[in-house]
Amino acid sequence: MRSEEEVFEQILDFAKEDDRIRAVMLNGSRLNPNAPDDIMQDYDIVYFIKDLDPSYKNNQDWINTFGDLVMMQQNDFENGYIFLMQFKDNVRIDLSFSDVSTIKEAAKEDSLTKILLDKDEVFEKGELDKPNESIHCVSKPTEQEFNEVLNEFWWIQVNIAKGIWRDELSYAKYMYDVILIGCIRKIISWKIGSENDWNVNTGKLGKWFKNYMSNSLYKKYLEIYPGNDYYEMWASLLLAGKFVRTLAIELAEDLGFTYPEEDDENTTTYVKKVRDLPKDSRVFRW
Fold first, then answer.
1. Would you say 102 and 121 are in contact if contact means Cβ atoms under 8 Å apart?
2. 53: Cα within 13 Å, side-chain hemisphere
3. pLDDT of 15 higher than 90
4. What structural domains does the chain harbor?
5. Segment 154-169, tens digit of pLDDT
6. For residue 30, how far is the Cα from the chain centroid?
7. InterPro entries attached here (predicted)?
């Protein structure tokens, strides 16, 4: 596996030898001292080029300069395109090509940004020498945002209950694993944020939750992830309600918001009734 120094040397040598590339920017986890420093760290690189030259897409032989590929994905975005490249020696480079006219705006979009090469001296010396996590920190929710997430959490429980009862596994799993868990991640992030003065980064999709949760709380969090067994899904659904109830009530108190107790009580009762409802039922009683 290439060393970090070797990879950066390749990245910069390629840019220095190509007059179309006017600047090189690094962003992401390699500038974050709180991110895991391991062999799985990506290199998030941006080449800023003249007139958004499309030749790097049209002829991709240049990729061989950086090693032997396992897999590559190329995507377009406004004012640029990106190559996500996984190499056989486990080096991964996410290499974007962006129009040089967007360089100032791009530098403002991510606080974890550093200029590695600036041929035209667009930036003053030392202007971006202090990358930080600020833009990635958990934002304090408004009361409306808090209410919307809690409303979605309890509403989706109704859909999941119906999906399980009807033996519609793919539907119930999507509602649970994607939407319900998404709501839970937001609530956990907010709780961690409130406990750290809103100056904390929990990582993409909560990947660093473990660093900020007690062992017992993190264990409870893991317990809400069900498999494909319906009995397990019913149990996890009720555990999820209990888990969110505890966190959200504390969070509401911290923020001066009102916890939706009626939604909680009614939905929990409904879920239990659907769980106990015989499969051949034609009548539902509250």
1. no
2. 14
3. yes
4. 4-136 (3.30.460.10), 143-275 (1.20.120.330)
5. 999 999 999 999 999 9
6. 17
7. Aminoglycoside_adenylylTfrase, NT_sf
